[in-house]
Structures are given as C-alpha cells and as structure tokens.
Amino acid sequence: MENITVKIDKINDISESYRQFYKDTSDSTGTILVHHGKAKYPGKYVKDYSEIKLYEKTPEAEKILKEKAAEIFKKYNLNSLLAVHNIGTIYKNDPILFLAVEAKDRETGFKGMRELLEFIKSEKFLGLEEIK
C-alpha cells in the first residue's frame, strides 16, 4: 500500500508531523529527506510585507497535489511521502510547506523531493500574495 499523505491545511506543529512520519519508517529506508519552507523576510515580491496570504488557485488544488505526489512516489519507488502546504494568513518565519520523503537511497530521495518541490513552487495551483 502506498504511504502518501498530502494536505493543504494549517500547519500547526512541524515537529509532530515529522515524529509521525518517522515512526512508520521502513527497514529498507536508507534516506529521509525533509524540506521545511518558511516565510522569509524580506519577501519574494513585496520586500517589506506585513502578512502573506496562501490560497488555492483552483478548488482542485489538493487533488492536483495528491495526483502529482502519487506519480512521484511511483516514479522514484519511494517508501513514503508527506506533503503539507499551509493555507490562509501567515507572517514572517511561519511555515509555508513541510515535505518529507523516505527512500531506499539518496539519489531517488533527492530526485523525488526536488521534483515535488519544484511542482509546488510553480504556483500553478497554489498562490502566495505578500501584503504591504
């Protein structure tokens, strides 16, 4: 069975998300990669922003992300994959994205993580607006 968790939701506790992810690791796991994207300051579009709005550009955003995650999971034969993207209003240093990939080796882990990260950062189905 595929061990894939994908959510577009408020991120409350990244450390708890990682603990849950780690407790179910497989004996065949050689690599666990984690990406914690956060709201950097100054901003990407508005240098001196006061807040950031994270939003879904389409009602199918979570479905699109789940489908891509499943494709990457199979393509790289990953053991598990977790993707949680924050939504709503956030502030500097708040988490935007938490990804974790469990793989049999570094090469497939890094490739899978990178492909999923670039897909998410394309901003085709999720948007980011920095507010002055």
UniProtKB/TrEMBL annotation:
Its domain of life?
Bacteria
In Pfam terms, one family for this protein is MoaE
Q: Which GO terms describe its molecular function?
A: molybdopterin synthase activity
Its recorded reaction(s) are:
2 [molybdopterin-synthase sulfur-carrier protein]-C-terminal-Gly-aminoethanethioate + cyclic pyranopterin phosphate + H2O = molybdopterin + 2 [molybdopterin-synthase sulfur-carrier protein]-C-terminal Gly-Gly + 2 H(+)
Q: Which InterPro entries match?
A: MoaE_sf, Mopterin_biosynth_MoaE
Q: Name one GO biological process term.
A: Mo-molybdopterin cofactor biosynthetic process
Name the enzyme's class.
Answer: transferase
What protein name does the entry list? Molybdopterin synthase catalytic subunit
Origin species, per record, is Flexistipes sinusarabici (strain ATCC 49648 / DSM 4947 / MAS 10)
